[in-house]
Amino acid sequence: MKTAAELGLTRCSVCGTLNPVHRQRCSRCDGSLQQRRRHSLSHGWALMLAAVILYLPANLLPVMTVTSLGQSEPSTILGGVMLLLHEGMWPLALLIFVASIFLPLLKLGILAGLLISTQRRSTRRPLERLQLYRLSEFVGRWSMVDVFVVAILAALVQLGNLATIHGNLGTSLFATVVALTMLAVESFDQRLIWDPIQKNEHE
Amino acid sequence: MTPMQVTPSMANPDTPMAEHHLDDYIACPDCDLLHRLRPLESRQLARCRRCNAVLYRGGSVNLQHLLAWLLTGLILLLVSNSYPILQLASQGQETHATFFQAAAAFAVQGMWWPAALVLLTSILIPFYRLGVLLLIALQSQLGRRLPIDSARLLLWHDWLAPWSMLEIFLLGLLVALVKLQDLAEVSPGIAFYAFFLLILNLAIISAQLDRRQLWRMTTQIRAGVKK
């Protein structure tokens, strides 16, 4: 089994056309060619660590404040989940918990595992590692749901003295965490998982 | 969908192949394994024999169908953005929210970054991506070249794919709808229904599209080849 890289070919990441490795730009779409994404691991680490640092404040600071009849009540993500549980809306509580708290953690864990194993040129379970990568690529965006919920609530609930809702710093930080993890996944080149295996096969 | 396995076979694997043969091969996007292209029946998928990634799709895009779906999508997107998605009524007071107001709600509080993110992921990027497909399909259908760089537009279309978040916005809408049930009387507006149809429409469009075919269409437009 041969890869394109071993045969001196580069797959254009934009249109999928094969090009000889010496070409700088794709013969079909003129996109710039890179056999593997440049600085894939260092960019991945930087983006992931930035997300890790922001993860705690994003979860501890209030994401929104509900003001009703003069009383202001700030709520965090976890606080919102607890409130929903308390009101008996557990499917919704579960959804928010999974999307906002569990998935970002899962994604950070997967990313750390992929970055470490790829850096050490591990040859173990490449298919399973690729599947974890695909999982984090697929689920990552859905964490953004809470940001949309706050945006919709803040736009809609403007009832003067009766009730108003507005967003807080927690939402900005949380949106940043999700965006950073998405960028980290995008910057990781999944083909790097397979490269050490190819090398082993021929030795 | 029948997965198909293809085996690369080459006379001398250690020397780069002649450039004119390269179009007969495809490398897996997820593991770089080389495969020889084989013609597929329509609706068939070719998958990587090592990691099972989808390599390419059989059959060709029906341009007229695609154009019809894209135009429908554009209309639904315009309607979704022009009317309120949710309405709220409580003790004689009424408010409503449109897509733009959802993004603006953060901006009025000076939270520029989440405001920009909502604006981009739920309005600008979906409009851009639909617009690009429409422009490419139109040029292909008419066999005429507009004075725009279609390849560059398509490049951004692909890059921005994960950042179009309409289906996530829909989930957010449903969550907000349930959350507000106790507080006040909430009802979906016209845009809500249009938006729901739009999500279905976009799923149908993406099921028809094959990246390789899209790029072939774009290069043909660029070369000025009439179809």
Strand order of the main beta sheet of chain B, please? 1-4-5
The fold-level CATH name of the largest domain in chain A is Butyryl-CoA Dehydrogenase, subunit A, domain 3
Task: Encode the helix/strand succession of chain A as letters.
Answer: EEHEEHHHHEHH
Roughly what fraction of the amino acids of chain B lie in strands?
Answer: 5-15%
Which pair of chains forms the biggest interface, and how many residues does each contribute? A-B, 71 and 71 residues
C-alpha-based Rg of chain A, rounded: 22 Å
Helix count of chain A equals: 7
Q: Number of DSSP strands of chain A?
A: 5
Indicate the low-confidence ranges of chain B by residue numbers. 1-16
First-to-last CA distance of chain A: 14 Å
Account of the 3D structure:
The complex is a heterodimer of chains A (203) and B (227). Chain A has 203 residues and is mainly α. Chain A folds into 2 domains: 1-35; 39-201, Butyryl-CoA Dehydrogenase, subunit A, domain 3 (Up-down Bundle), CATH 1.20.140. Chain A is 56% helix and 10% strand. Chain A is built from 7 helices and 5 strands; from the N terminus they run E-E-H-E-E-H-H-H-H-E-H-H. Chain A has helices at residues 40-60, 77-86, 90-119, 126-139, 145-156, 169-187, 195-201, and strands spanning 9-11, 18-20, 64-68, 71-75, 164-167. In chain A, strands 4-3-5 form a 3-stranded antiparallel sheet. In chain A, helix 1 packs antiparallel against helix 3 (90-119) and helix 3 (90-119) crosses helix 6. Chain A is elongated and about 70 Å long. Chain A starts with 8 loop residues before the first strand and ends with a helix. The model of chain A has no long low-confidence stretch (mean pLDDT 92). In chain B, the strands form 3 sheets. Chain B has a 3-stranded mixed sheet, with no helix packed on it. Chain B has a 3-stranded antiparallel sheet with strand order 7-6-8. A two-stranded antiparallel ribbon of chain B has the order 2-3. The two termini of chain B are 29 Å apart. By secondary structure, chain B is an alpha+beta fold. Chain B has 2 domains: 3-57, no CATH class; 63-223, Butyryl-CoA Dehydrogenase, subunit A, domain 3 (Up-down Bundle), CATH 1.20.140. In chain B, a hairpin with a 2-residue loop joins strand 6 and strand 7 (93-97). In chain B, helix 3 (112-142) packs across helix 7. Chains A and B meet through strand 2, helix 3, helix 4, helix 5 and helix 6 of A and strand 2, strand 6, strand 7, helix 2 and helix 3 of B.
